[in-house]
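Request:
Um, any thoughts?
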Amino acid sequence: MAEDLYSVLGVSRSADQKEIRRAYREKARKFHPDVNKTPGAEDTFKRISEAHDVLSDPETRAQYDRFGENFRQYAAAGAARSSEQPRRSGGTRYTWSGSGAQSVNWEDLFGGGFGGFGRGADHTAELEITVEEAYRGGRRTVQVASPYGGAQEYTIDIPAGAVDGQRLRIAGAGGAGADGQDGDLLVTLRVKDSKRYRLSGADIETDLPISPWEAALGADVSVATPGGPVTVHVPPGSSTGRRLRLRGQGMPRRGQPGDLYARVKVVVPRTLTKKEKELFEKLRDVSSFDARRGS
């Protein structure tokens, strides 16, 4: 009978992820073959690594708790069945910049080169957010694939006015440090344009649909901004492509916020009522305007 994985790490079955990680780190430092040259140390280290790989992943841990040492057989059978169905992901997964999941990296484990029992290594990941999320800020929960196998879930606080390329730090979520000082997880934000908003530095651009008569006669219309609706004046004679500037309605910044540019987009009715058609025909007959003149 195979040795119980919880016993290998010396933790109880109710141990949380932090306890499992701490137990793995302590035992791995003790039995790593680069440190411990006694017979059997390498085999012990392999069992410790296997136990950590299984128990650090909530999904494989649940399978192990349910099926015991034969959990891989049941998991393989379940995977074969599930492969026949469309797969859905419950969240966004990001990849660590570190060693592969199939090996244990000495720097990640001990926070430096051999003999460097110091702070753990930092890990990096990227998080894609919308312009609206960057404007308002808020919280996002992400899953990050660990170089030791499995995944860890983190809650990230996105500051209002976040910019593309901005880095957020989660202290202690990086590589394990031999002296107890774990490295950090550095998350780089990538701001993605949405269907409604486009971002250029601190400025935001959005389309403003208006009717032909609003374009010709001018009007005060409501435009949606990430901070809420704002009224903008459309000058008479506005054509598609004209940009209307709303000062201070762009991305929040310390000191001077960005601006929002509403790009006019003249929209005509898809179908006309009888009366509308008569009026448009009358306008055609009396107007001398040539839209293609000078083009």
Remarks:
- Confidence is low (pLDDT under 50) at residues 81-117.
